[in-house]
Amino acid sequence: MRDVIGQRRLLDRLGDQAVRGDVAHAYELSGPRSIGKHTVAIRLAQTLNCDREPRVSGGCGACVACRKIERGLHPDVREVTRLVDSGTRDDRKNISIEQVRAMQQDLALRPLEGRTRVVIIDDAADLSEHAETALLKTLEEPPAHACLLLVTPTPSRLLDTIRSRVQPIPFRPVPRAEIEAALVARLGPDAARYAAAAAGKPGVAIRLAIDEAEREARRALEREFYTLVASRLTDRFAWAADLAESRTDTQKRSAQIETRLVEWGELLRDAAFVAAGAPERAVRPERAAESAKLAASTGGRELVDLAQAFERWRRDVVETTVSARMLLELLALRLPYRADLAAAA
Ligand SMILES: [Zn+2]
Fold this sequence. Notes:
The protein is of the alpha/beta class and 345 residues long. The chain has 15 helices and 5 strands. Strands 2-3-4-1-5 form a 5-stranded parallel beta sheet, with helices on both faces.
């Protein structure tokens, strides 16, 4: 499928079906953040509505329909996401039932310019309970010209009755070599070094390769990690309280915590690889010195356990309503202590 990195076998089949117009009425695109779900949703919409003949998987990318879809301007392709509250300027907590009803009214009409009305709901786990129930109606009796794409990193948060009516498209981590080849083809040979950093998620590699702010954010999180490792418990608990009680909405806070668990889990895993005598497997070779220090004082077994704990906590954060404060305090307790890593921060 045009400009999509990875998931090749899955997308070849899906793309061929879309070219023939032989698609299900609803799909669930699931997998970690930055793995390509949203891009694939857009490409499916383009395949289904591209003006060019013969049709190609992913759409031609150049016709009026493809360009309108890319820019969010096509009347038959609608994205439903959490709205921004006009008062507080924060994102609303949920996708509301009103949003789903408006979408349904639209969906009942024949396509205006294309062949298929496509609705992309991202993140589908943000649907309010009422919105989800309303959506069921559409899934039970979908209009012939409709295709719904439910995009989410946490499909387990959707109602079973919804999930049983959509075709699953699970996205898997993309091999490093595949990301590297795509980066080089798109952005030149210098971009190759971000392939490892992506840890299977092409979107991460692309952002790192093109955006200095993204690279700085990554370094800032590394510094935060080493500061914590070099801190005593009182400071660690103060950090936990700050993050747990920050004034952003729950979803954003969960995302902040998730990012830390993912990125810090990588640092721990890198240190575990060093402890095991396999430093070449590190995804952050630029932190080799710090990984070596952690490995020397903490030991491989404990680092592996901890990296696994981080992954479990990550799942807890995204799939359930675990207490952020309790989880972060647990993290503060479990982190190894190494005073000389303050220098790395
Ligand atoms: Zn096109």
